[in-house]
Amino acid sequence: MIPELDVRRCNAEKKYTGELVFDFEPEQSLVDIPYVSPDGPVSARLHYNILEDDSVEIAGTLSFALKGLCSRCLKETRQVVAGEAEGYFIPNGNGEEDYAYRNGVIDLREFLRDAVLFLLPARLICSETCTAPDYNEEE
Ligand SMILES: [Zn+2]
Q: How many A from CA of 75 to the centre of ligand 1?
């Protein structure tokens, strides 16, 4: 489950920083590598920091597994992907690249979707020694 961050309540309780640790099921359609799909949930370990103007920094790490066929030799394989995620949330938005949130509550879904997309490799390779040519590479 993807939690919401209730900024109003955090402010009322003076919890300006904290941890968000949770797992969630990624959308299958996020992975566009042929014959590859997510294997199990994405694990998120995030830290939030509410600033004086109610903008919120959220940063941490995500990890998840991919499984399917090697993009070179078509052997069944599985790979763990892990990396950093970082977002900046502005109340009611500023029309720029940051995320907007409304009514004092941050919905993390769009941020997490973007973060998973950013971490996805272009292809799944069974091992560093796999030397078969990419089957989907255009010559
Ligand atoms: Zn391979």
A: 6
